[in-house]
Design goal:
The protein has 86 residues and is mainly alpha-helical. Helix content is 62%, strand content 0%. It is built from 5 helices and no strands. The radius of gyration is 22 Å and the shape is elongated.
Length: 86
């Protein structure tokens, strides 16, 4: 079956279940899913394996988004300094 899928170009040659797990976990982590959710999708009982499989995720986008959200929230909380009239 795997050979036919490779022949039909439905999957790339050399695909393994382990590699597929890494790909799914990486994509989910980059989407912002937590380790508990990743473990659930992968069928793992612990978050430790989800961390293992998603360790290569590029977190730059998430970090940039979090920094932008933080900056927006910080700007909402700023108060104007009012000088006294005297």
């Amino acid at each position: 079956m795997k050979g036919k899928l490779e022949t039909d170009a439905a999957i790339q040659p050399g695909l393994t279940l382990k590699g597929l797990r890494h790909t799914v976990a990486t994509i989910l982590a980059e989407m912002g899913k937590d380790h508990g959710t990743i473990a659930l999708v992968l069928g793992h009982a612990t978050e430790a394996m989800a961390k293992h499989y998603s360790r290569r995720a590029n977190m730059t986008l998430r970090a940039t988004s979090a920094a932008a959200d933080f900056d927006e929230e910080l700007n909402k909380r700023k108060t104007k300094v009012v000088k006294s009239g005297g």
